[in-house]
Every structure is written in structure tokens, then in C-alpha cells.
Design brief:
Helix content is 30%, strand content 30%. The chain is an alpha/beta fold and 229 residues long. A seven-stranded mixed beta sheet has the order 3-2-1-4-7-15-16. The protein has a four-stranded antiparallel beta sheet with strand order 9-12-8-13. A three-stranded antiparallel beta sheet has the order 5-6-14, with helices on one face. This is Ribose-5-phosphate isomerase A.
């Protein structure tokens, strides 16, 4: 029986094989990507590739630089060839919930820019509907976070809490708070995203809809590759 780390590690080879010379590569955030970054560096070195990375978090950027991957600022580029990231939930249409690591805004900027967006995950992340097993993260301004959370709770049967890091509020790389929203029943992600994104104080939601090109899933039976229909 393989553990979650082994399943995640299984997905990295297929992803790294898709990196080509002269690519601008979007590098995600999270436990799967921490396993991926050394593999990216190894591929670049082995095949003498010219690859430019752009990272979705300060943590990923720090790690990429440690492995001598050339990293640039998002504002220095106009497109991304390939983005690779993890996910907290994946539905049958390859729609995602992301943001467990608190980098959802930067992840969305980079993944939206990518001509191809690959998601790596273990089989536990596959769900019947978004919000089934994981709370939906929303990045919000510090100024009116409580007002925003009350509006969300009034909209639907949703329980909202501000993310904490031990006893202090979690702060994103952008200096904002994260609200984690427990969806107590199935809800249309398109409708909820549309409602949330128009609330003053909401920067971005953890819904990644119609963005994924391919999901590479690590299962006990091996790798499962799902392409966008």
C-alpha cells in the first residue's frame, strides 16, 4: 500500500517529461510541487535545457532558486508555456479547488496565463463535487474580512472561518487573510464563484474552473492521466 507521498511522487515523472527547451514554466505551490522542483532541476541539468520559471509563492521561488532554476518575476513575462501545480480537490470535469497552501491568487494568475496547465495529485483528491471533502479558500482584504464572511454565510448554507496559523491569522504572500468556507451541501461552483468575486474585499476564490488541461493522478494501481474533454 503506497502512502500519499509515494502517490504524489509517481505523478512527477510524467509532468517533467513535458518540459521542453526554451519554455517559460509556471511552478506551483504545495507538498506535491516540493517533490517536483528537484525533478525539474534534474531534467534541466540532464538535457541542458533553457527553462525560465515563474513561481506561485515565495516558498516555491526560494526552493527553485536553491536548485539553481532560473526564476523571473510574473511582470517580466507575457505568457507561460506550461504550468504545473497540485490541487486540493478535482472533479470529473477537471475543475479544482486550490488554496490549501494559501497561494490561490498567485496560482490563479499563473495557471490562467498558461497555454497548458497540468495538475498533479493523489487519488484522494478526486471528488464527486467541489467542496465535498475540502473547504473552499477565499483570499480577502484584512479591512472587512468579517463583513465578507457574514455575507457568505447569509448567501447559502456555508460555514466560514478565518484561517489561523496557531494563534495568529494566516497571512498570504499578498498580505491578505484566507477565509475557509465549508460547503455543507453540493452547490454550483460557477454560481458561487460569481457571487463571491463581486463581494467588495474578495481578491480571488479557490475555484479553478475550466482551466485544467490535464490531470496526472497517482493511484494504488499506477498513474492515471485524464485529459480535458
Amino acid at each position: 500500500m503506497k502512502d500519499a507521498k509515494e502517490l504524489k511522487l509517481m505523478t512527477t515523472d510524467d509532468a517533467v517529461a513535458q518540459i521542453q527547451d526554451n519554455m517559460i514554466l509556471g511552478i506551483g505551490t504545495g507538498s506535491t510541487i516540493e517533490l517536483l522542483i528537484p525533478k525539474i532541476a534534474e531534467r534541466i541539468q540532464q538535457d541542458n535545457l533553457n527553462v525560465t520559471g515563474v513561481c506561485t509563492s515565495n516558498k516555491s521561488e526560494f526552493l527553485a532558486k536553491q536548485y539553481n532554476i532560473n526564476v523571473v518575476d510574473i511582470n517580466d513575462i507575457t505568457y507561460i508555456d506550461l504550468a504545473i501545480d497540485g490541487a486540493d480537490e478535482i472533479d470529473s470535469d477537471l475543475n479544482l479547488i486550490k488554496g490549501g497552501g494559501g497561494a490561490l491568487f498567485r496560482e490563479k494568475v499563473i495557471d490562467e496565463m498558461a497555454r497548458k496547465f497540468i495538475v498533479l495529485a493523489d487519488e484522494s483528491k478526486m471528488v464527486n463535487y467541489l467542496g465535498e471533502t475540502f473547504k473552499l479558500p477565499i483570499e480577502v482584504d484584512k479591512f472587512n474580512w468579517l463583513l465578507v464572511s457574514k455575507k457568505i454565510e447569509a448567501y447559502h448554507d456555508i460555514s466560514v472561518e478565518r484561517r489561523m496559523n496557531e494563534d495568529i491569522p494566516f497571512i498570504t504572500d499578498n498580505g491578505n487573510y484566507i477565509l475557509d468556507c465549508e460547503l455543507k451541501s453540493k452547490i454550483d461552483p460557477y454560481q458561487l464563484h460569481e457571487f463571491l468575486i463581486h463581494l467588495t474585499g474578495v481578491l480571488e476564490t479557490g475555484y479553478f474552473l475550466d482551466m485544467t488541461t490535464q490531470a496526472i493522478i497517482g493511484t494504488q494501481e499506477g498513474i492515471k492521466v485524464i485529459n480535458k474533454k
